[in-house]
Description:
The chain has 2 domains: 2-134 and 269-311, Response regulator (Rossmann fold, 3-Layer(aba) Sandwich), CATH 3.40.50.2300; 136-267, Response regulator (Rossmann fold), CATH 3.40.50. The chain is an alpha/beta fold. The chain is built from 11 helices and 12 strands. The protein is elongated and about 60 Å long. Helix 2 (42-58) runs parallel beside helix 10, helix 5 (136-151) runs parallel beside helix 6 and helix 7 runs parallel beside helix 8 (226-236). It has helices at 2-15, 42-58, 72-83, 99-111, 136-151, 166-179, 197-209, 226-236, 251-259, 270-286, 320-329, and strands at residues 31-35, 61-65, 91-94, 116-119, 131-133, 154-161, 184-192, 218-221, 243-247, 264-267, 307-309, 313-315.
Amino acid sequence: MRMRNTFLMALCCSALPWLIGCGGAHDSTEKYYLVATNIKIPYWQSVRAGLLREAGRMGVKAEMVGPDAFDPKAEHDAFQEVLGQKIKPSGILVSAADPAIMQPDIDAAIAKGIPVVTVDADAPASKRLTFIGTDNYKAGIMGAQLAVKQLQGKGNVVIFTMPEQTNLKDRMHGYQDGFEPHLGIKVVETIDIKGDPRIAFDHTQELVDKKIIDKIDGFVCLEAVACPEVVDVLDRNKVGNKVVVAMDTDPRTLDAIKRGRVAGAIAQKPFTMGFVGVATLDVMHHNPPTPLDKVWADDPLAPVPAFIGTGQVLVDKSNVDAFLAETSQQGQ
Length: 332
């Protein structure tokens, strides 16, 4: 508990210098929302765990809402439902599946005096107050370094992504820069999975059926749901000697790392995103920057940070057991 309180004080006094103190007295109507897509997958359940852990400590209400599938339009609808609550939300965290769709929603909430912070996937052109999440370019560099090592500097690679998301664009940029010095590595195909793991499964199976799989040396997944499907296809068809680099720590991904089927995964810290996210909103609710609707990211003297990094780490066979033990102990 002391470490958490120390963090919050640091957040108030250094990251957010316009505050008199951290947060404030809470009342019975105070409630914070997290809006996302694909909310049933383990990644978002971990974000929710962090959200509820800190909300419980502060004595406030919190809820995660959004569609079970990757559906940017449904995320917009969920955000609008939050805005339409009889009791005005104290603050909103949102992961912008499609920044173009979510920007007007974010700006509308800010106009109503509701603090909005993006988490996991940013909407940088909006008036959101800050972004909390992974340095996705560094995550891409980290993944590229692992892929280069495993491929020994040469090979044909297939990448699975969702190109409209800003976080995945940044990861792709990291991979591109990481691969650039290694002329023997070629990205032969980039697949938009549209948030649907079946697309990753079906496309990998198609590579097997058309016997193209023999010309593919590696698979890279820039999000959580594709690589477990890729591994499933490779296992079903007894295809070996393929390098697979994953993103995030889906239980099936971790199992595949333990089996040596996945070389490693770039793990984000979703629990931390939820935990820090609601704490940040609480501070902004009780002590909002003035004016709230200013684009603070463009202000060289901004009292709010444009980005709060939660970190990223490589999970491979050398540390997967320790990673599982630690996350189990934390109740994630």
